[in-house]
Amino acid sequence: MFPFHRPSPSGRMMLAAGLCLVVLGASGCTRIRTHQGYQVDKLLVDSVQPGIDNRASVEGTLGRPSFTSQFGEQDWYYVSRNMRQLAFANPRPVDQTVLRVRFDAAGNVVAVDRMGLDQVAKISPEGDKTPTLGRNRSLFQEIFGNIGAVGAGGMGGGAGGNTGPGPNGS
Q: I need a labelling partner for 10 at 20 to 30 A (CA). Which of 20, 27, 49, 78 fits?
């Protein structure tokens, strides 16, 4: 028979430390799910009825809105978003609900609209440079381009005395 060999205490410590490193390394690759904003309760949202509810009853049912419209207080918005992130990548939305409650001038509910993630505009930059108007100069031209231009003729900072009439006309 083969003799059974027990690891030494230092070997057990190394094995435990290695196991801890593997567990910690694997936990960095897990998906992180987060929720931002309002918790949508379908039953409460469906209970808000146009023509029946007003601002006070909507606030009592749904709570304070995430934000209100900027031009007057005719619309209230409740924003809910679920995000997912893998390890150190940028978080990205997987689900979004924007609940818009519209009010008339008297404060009564006119309509309740829902918008999802399909309404979000995806903006991608054009290349890695921002197009600008003006001269296209390199870094060295930007840094050293004004050397010798200060005080040059026609540049407004000329050397010499005042050759024209002064502010009083003399």
A: 27
Phi then psi dihedrals of residue 34, to 5 deg: -130, 160
- Tell me if residue 14 falls in helix, strand or coil: helix
Note the pLDDT of residue 26: 61
As assigned by CATH, the class of the 31-119 domain is alpha beta
Reported as a single tens digit per residue, the pLDDT across 36-65 is 888 888 888 889 999 899 999 999 999 999
Query: Which tokens sit at 120?
Result: 């979000």
Query: What are the C-alpha distances in Å from 45 to residues 25, 30, 49, 100, 129?
Result: 43, 33, 9, 11, 45
Residue 7 contacts residue 52 (beta carbons within 8 Å): no
For range 8-32, the mean pLDDT: 73
